[in-house]
Each structure stands twice: as structure tokens, then as C-alpha cells.
Amino acid sequence: MVKGCPVELSPTYNIDEAALVRTQLAEAGYRLARLLNALTAAVLATGRILQVAHVIQVLQPGSPRKTAMRTLVVACSLVVLASGMTFSVSVSLAVEPAEHLLPPLYHESATEGTVARYLLDPRGEVEGLLLTDGTQMHVTSHIASELIKVMKPGDRIRARGTRKRQAALFEPRVIQNLSTGTSFSTPLRLDLPIPDQENRLSMTDMKASGTLEVLLYDYMNETVRGMLLSDGTQVRFPPDATDALRRSLRVGQSLKADGYGTENEYGRAMEALRLGFEHGRLIPLDATVNSLDASDQAASPGPK
Predict the structure, then answer these.
(1) The domain that contains 234 carries what CATH number?
(2) Same domain, yes or no: 164 and 214
């Protein structure tokens, strides 16, 4: 069974690239809104000044109405200008991004461990690394072919990146192979071309059974998406498997599954269609199954 905890090195402070982009966009939007508000106030002021000039022009020189009208128009213009400036400031404050809404500074950290195996999808494609302490590092299929050239099971590695809320998940930025001295950087998703679909391996019927050793997590929503059994099979749940079922599974349970998957030089992985306890019956996995215990009880005949 995979045991232990990750070694946490001294953290440094850095900004996540996506968070930095969101912050810059928020600041740019705020500054644009302030500029538009200032332009609005300038247009209002210009309009009022033109109105004053027009009124003064149409009045006859020396007319007793001239002085009174000029005073009235100037006073009204000042009131309108003051109202426009107040409105501009209020709107500017309203669109200013609140501090708690801005993306936080992420703490970059490091972890060190030994590669236990590659993480695989049911098609047999490498998705990342699983360390002996249970840490899971995912990479995209764009760079998996490069990863397997420099990282292999048994290698001692050190990675820098971000620890996610789910402690088992670590998003690597740079992975250093301490056994060989090579380093691997994880580029952005669009840095490399998408793999050719025709070169992907086909899946076949597959069965697996053993003790649940590691719960495998989705790197996007950080929920349980599968498990590693003691026979070496990585079992992936179907998309419609319920959250309740995912949460009901525990390390140490003896389980069996059948479905379809792939076995190759990198390991063995499958997507389960049916799942059950080792000495129980297999339960079809659909949106109605919330736990294997409840399914077994519901399926068993009651007393006669």
C-alpha cells in the first residue's frame, strides 16, 4: 500500500500564471471604466459651456436681462458639473474590483519523492506520475511523450509547483529527476500540437480485483475519479457515477471491477462498468448507485 506523506521544502512566493492574467484584466477594466467616466464628465462640461456661450450670444449687449441670465446659466452649469463629477466618482468606485475578488497569490512549493508508476487513462495514455507517498502529478497528453523519456518508475524526483486543495494533487511547473540529473518543464496546453487520434490505442474488455490502495483524483475539480487496486490496475469511474459513490470508497476495501481498458508497457488501466466488493456481486455503475453497500442491500431478498 502506498504510505507516507510528501516532503515539503521551504516555500517561495509566486503568482499563478492564470491568476496573474485575471488580475491584469481586472485592473485594465477598472482603468478603462475610470477613463470613460472622466470622458463623460468632460463631455458634460463642454456641453454646458457651449450652452452658456450660446445664451450669452443671443442676448442683446447692455440688456438688463444679460447679467441675470448669465448668472442663472453659470449657476446651473456649476450644479450640473458638480453632479456629473459626483456621478463619475461613484461609478468609478463601484467598478473598482474589491480586494477579496482578485485572484490570490499562490504559494509555490516543492515536493520530493519516488515515482511509483505512471498515471494512465483507460486508453493506456500517460497522464502523469504517481509517487510512492500518494502524490499525483498530472500533465496533458501533449507532453506525455516527452515526460516518459525523462521520468520512469523508480526515479527519485523533486518538483516545484502548486499544491492543490486536495493534498494528494500537486500541479508541477518543473520536475527534476534526481536520479539522472535531467529536468522537465510543463508547458502550457497550446505549446505543443494535439496528439494524432489515430495513434491512440483501442480498449478491450478487462477485469480487475484487489485491495484499494490509492484514491485517484481529477486534477480539475479535485473529486475522486478512480482508484488504484493492489493488482496494479487503475480503475476509472464512468462520468455518471454519483458523488456519493465516489465518497463512499475507502482505502483498504477489497473490490472487483469489470469494464474496458488497456494494458501496455506503461501499466494497466480501465473504465469500470460494474463494481462490487470482492465476495459480493457486481453492481452496474449508473446515476442511481450511491454506495456498494446500499446496492447490495437493495438487491438482496428480504425475509420470507
Answers:
(1) 2.40.50
(2) no
Contact 235, 270 (CB under 8 A): yes
**Tens of pLDDT, residues 70-115:** 666 666 666 655 665 555 545 444 444 444 444 444 567 899 999 9
Contact of 139 with 161, CB cutoff 8 Å: no
Give how far Cα 218 sits from Cα of 104, 142, 146, 231, Å: 22, 18, 22, 22
Lowest mean pLDDT among 82-86, 136-140, 188-192: 188-192
User: Alpha helices, DSSP H only, in 155-290?
Assistant: 243-248
Pairing mode, if any, of strands 233-236 and 170-177? unpaired
Grid cell of 141 as nine digits: 497528453
138: closest CA among 149, 125, 123? 125
- Average pLDDT value for residue range 268-290: 92
Backbone angles phi, psi at 158, to 5 degrees: -130, 130
Domain that holds residue 242: 202-299
DSSP tag of 183: E
Whose CA is closest to 233, among 196, 252, 259, 194? 259
Q: Is the pTM of this model over 0.70?
A: no
